[in-house]
């Protein structure tokens, strides 16, 4: 799949609030960037001390000397990701290093603050754990769970497409993770292969919450996400809810099975038209069960989209999924 440029909006520079956006090492698709959503509360990692430089606590702050830095895992627009070991715990983690100057230049500090605020409060086997963060004068460091098998997108590029068993397993895992997010009033809004990592046993991990939002009412109006994955309600300027994630996993299921998104065209306008018309064409090799699932997720009216529990319970998923880790929301048809 070809590289695609990012949409960027110009804006006035703001003081950097030690705040992380997407730093995928793989080719970037076109992104549609939302306006900033201010976060009023201080951020702390789950089960750990606050590491904010503004903290008046006598607790020792985390710093770079607490880690042994290993090989690079990926490189992105705002910095790099490294394999690292926490010296005291002898624990392996991924250390994401972001340069403040680059984020200030692009005006995306709010994304970092939002990502930390949301991901630090999520704990699910199919969501990449956020452990802590710290910063110095030039950089912000995020301490994250290490996913040994790397990026789903790279695997998809290497394989061309996935079989029914692998795709159905991913669909069960991501549906379970999103049910957990939605229960906590978190809408992800940017599910795609670039934002999914694979754990030690090949399990899926949602790894990027840069476009996500905590919306207690589950209603939003900002346009964001990746062009090929945008749902009709965003393109048409309507308010959207957590059901945008249902559309996204329908697109994801198609891309895993076919190798490219269902509405991809040579230009933006044509892609928008195909999305709003839900102009989806299935190759002959796609099974009837997979077609049925995808067709029930890619519905123009959000209310008509299959629920996440129904995705888990879908006959094609039940027949093909080989999920290893116990789910938070088991199938009602097991």
Automatic annotation (TrEMBL):
It is an enzyme of class 2 (transferase). ATP binds at residues 77, 96, 145-147, 194-195, 208. Keywords: ATP-binding, Kinase, Nucleotide-binding, Serine/threonine-protein kinase, Transferase. InterPro entries: Aur-like (IPR030616), Kinase-like_dom_sf (IPR011009), Prot_kinase_dom (IPR000719), Protein_kinase_ATP_BS (IPR017441), Ser/Thr_kinase_AS (IPR008271). There is a cross-link at residue 192 (Glycyl lysine isopeptide (Lys-Gly) (interchain with G-Cter in SUMO2)). It holds the Pfam family Pkinase. It catalyses: L-seryl-[protein] + ATP = O-phospho-L-seryl-[protein] + ADP + H(+); L-threonyl-[protein] + ATP = O-phospho-L-threonyl-[protein] + ADP + H(+). Residues 45-57 have a biased composition (Low complexity). Gene3D superfamilies: Phosphorylase Kinase, domain 1, Transferase(Phosphotransferase) domain 1. Its EC number is 2.7.11.1. The active site is at 190 (proton acceptor). One of its GO terms (molecular function) is protein serine/threonine kinase activity. The keyword Nucleotide-binding applies. Residues 67-317 form the Protein kinase domain. Residues 1-57 are annotated as: Disordered. The keyword ATP-binding applies. Belongs to the protein kinase superfamily. This is non-specific serine/threonine protein kinase. It comes from Gouania willdenowi (Blunt-snouted clingfish). The gene is aurkb.
């Amino acid at each position: 799949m070809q590289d695609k440029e990012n949409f960027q909006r110009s804006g006035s520079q703001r003081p950097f609030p030690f705040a992380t956006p997407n730093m995928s090492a793989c080719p970037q698709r076109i992104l549609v960037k939302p306006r900033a959503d201010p976060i009023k509360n201080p951020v702390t990692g789950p089960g750990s001390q606050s590491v904010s430089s503004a903290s008046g606590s006598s607790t020792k702050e985390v710093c770079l000397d607490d880690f042994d830095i290993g090989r690079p895992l990926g490189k992105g627009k705002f910095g790099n990701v490294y394999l690292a070991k926490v010296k005291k715990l002898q624990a392996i983690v991924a250390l994401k290093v972001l340069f403040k100057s680059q984020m200030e230049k692009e005006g995306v500090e709010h994304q970092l603050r939002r990502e930390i605020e949301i991901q630090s409060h999520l704990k699910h086997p199919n969501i990449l754990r956020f452990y802590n963060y710290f910063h110095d004068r030039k950089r912000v460091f995020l301490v994250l769970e290490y996913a040994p098998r790397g990026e789903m997108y790279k695997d998809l590029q290497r394989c061309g497409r996935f079989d029914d068993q692998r795709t159905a397993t991913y669909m069960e895992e991501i549906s379970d993770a999103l049910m957990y997010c939605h229960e906590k009033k978190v809408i992800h809004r940017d599910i795609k292969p670039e934002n999914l990592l694979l754990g030690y046993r090949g399990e899926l991990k949602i790894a990027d919450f840069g476009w996500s939002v905590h919306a207690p009412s589950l209603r939003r109006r900002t346009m964001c996400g990746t062009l090929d994955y945008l749902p009709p309600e965003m393109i048409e300027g309507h308010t959207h809810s957590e059901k945008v994630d249902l559309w996204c996993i329908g697109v994801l299921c198609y891309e895993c099975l076919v190798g490219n998104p269902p509405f991809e065209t040579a230009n933006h306008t044509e892609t928008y038209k195909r999305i709003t018309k839900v102009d989806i064409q299935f190759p002959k090799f796609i099974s009837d069960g997979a077609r049925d699932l995808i067709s029930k997720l890619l519905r123009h009216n959000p209310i008509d989209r299959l629920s996440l529990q129904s995705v888990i319970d879908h006959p094609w998923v039940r027949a093909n999924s080989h999920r290893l880790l116990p789910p938070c929301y088991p199938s009602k048809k097991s």
